[in-house]
Amino acid sequence: APRGRLLCGPGLRRCAAGLLVTKCGLLRHRQAGGAAAGGAYWVDSQQKRYVPVKGDHVIGIVTAKAGDVFKLDVGGSEQASLSYLAFEGATKRNRPNVQVGDLIYGQFLVANKDMEPEMVCIDSSGRSSGMGIIGQDGFLFKVSLGLVRKLLAPKCEIIQELSQLYPFELVLGMNGRIWVKAKTVQQTLIIVNILEACEYMTAEQRKQALARLSGN
């Protein structure tokens, strides 16, 4: 059989004998691009506390400034660090205007059990790619990690149906945090309530709720 590069995601760890499962859940597999063998395997579980994973995009809350580094609450067991140089165009003279309490959307550059998690707001090309400080307005709330993964799936029906109801901005963090902003506070809260409820609703119940709202 052809051999390809195999990536181990959350819930799996390499050891001498092969792969070790570190948490219970459903084993998932994503095929590698093209005709290459391999791909990525991970365990999809209903864990409550977020565990940082390298490359994950998350929403953090700035809790402190410590010299050249910001400390962020990302919902894990310890805080993450973020350098002021980890923003697009940032230099020693041109520092980003980050204040305690600000919301930051970024990704993990370092995330393992032996080191403090480190975040950045730039990609490998030095571009922000939508990362950085999230606007002051809007509403931040928390959902289960399983629901966030469902919302982040390509062509997610929930997001498509909501976008037909009202125009809105949405930021999804793999750590279970969601930031949403619509034209009015009422529309924002309606979207928040639907997103929170859709974890326990069937597709048919969700469509009926949206139909009632669109009729108002």
Written account of the structure:
By secondary structure, this protein is an alpha+beta fold. The chain is 20% helix and 34% strand. The protein has four helices and 14 strands. The chain has helices at residues 145-152, 157-165, 185-197, 203-215, and strands at 6-8, 12-15, 18-21, 26-30, 39-44, 57-66, 69-73, 80-83, 103-112, 115-120, 132-133, 139-142, 168-172, 177-182. The strands form four sheets. It has a five-stranded mixed barrel. A hairpin with a 6-residue loop joins strand 7 and strand 8. The chain is globular. The termini are far apart.
**Classification by helices and strands:** alpha+beta
Shape: globular
Report the C-alpha radius of gyration, rounded: 19 Å
- Arithmetic mean pLDDT: 86
Cα(first) to Cα(last) distance is 58 Å
In DSSP terms (H or I, runs of 4 or more residues), the helix count works out at 4
Strand line-up across the major sheet: 6-7-8-10-9
Number of strands: 14
Percentage of residues assigned to helices: 10-25%
Low-confidence parts, pLDDT < 50 over ≥5 residues? none
Order of helices and strands: EEEEEEEEEEEEHHEEHH
Biggest sheet features:
5 strands, mixed, barrel
Content of β-strand: 25-35%
